[in-house]
Design goal:
alpha+beta; about 35% helix; about 20% strand; elongated
């Protein structure tokens, strides 16, 4: 051979073959990688509920309830937040919520409420005045059928439309992409037997 050449000689490669076999196994069954990414996505989404900022970096519009009574937007009952989960298999990962109203908060939209009427049972105090909620003095307390001091009140609700602004909580931004790349490299490093945590 004329010209320039290079030759690589491998010495002490006893650990190389098992490491390559573990990497091949991860390639055939990558669920651990997808699970790590799904867990990160779930945790990143949960963090957005704490900060009130979407994946696009835009702060959520504060809800009327929060303006009036305090608290945090989208976490009144924590049902939406508690419903954030992730799922992973060998084909990929996904995270989101099982709350049926999750989409209206993510994308925004209109909720059309039909006109309705009915009666409600409200509790009365010892002076036959409506019993009020402790934290919301302008709201009455509903009465069960077993409550003896109660009054039935008729109500009529007009048809109306509620306009919900989008408050995106699901999504992947640049920072998430960097974190997911680091997690992927860590999982691959662990599979190769290098201990991970680069």
């Amino acid at each position: 051979m004329s010209g320039v050449s290079a030759r690589v000689i491998a010495q002490d490669v006893d650990g190389l073959v098992p490491a390559l076999q573990r990497l091949a196994l991860l390639g055939r069954a990558p669920r651990p990688l997808w699970k790590a990414l799904g867990t990160y996505g779930e945790n990143s989404t949960r963090e957005r509920f704490k900060t009130g900022v979407g994946p696009d970096g835009v702060r959520w519009k504060i809800s009327r309830r929060v303006r009036k009574f305090g608290g945090q937007t989208l976490v009144r009952s924590t049902r939406l937040l508690r419903g954030i989960t992730n799922r992973a298999d060998n084909d990929g990962a996904e995270w989101g919520t099982n709350a049926v109203y999750g989409a209206i908060h993510q994308f925004g939209g209109e909720i059309k409420k039909a006109a309705r009427s009915g009666t409600v049972r409200l509790r009365l105090d010892s002076k036959s005045a409506l019993l009020r909620q402790k934290d919301h003095r302008h709201l009455a307390v509903f009465a069960k059928a077993t409550h003896k001091r109660a009054a039935e009140k008729a109500f009529t609700g007009k048809a109306h439309t509620i306009r919900m602004p989008a408050r995106p909580y699901l999504g992947v931004n640049e920072q998430d992409g960097r974190e997911m790349l680091a997690i992927s490299l860590d999982v691959i490093d662990q599979a190769a037997g290098n201990g991970g945590a680069r």
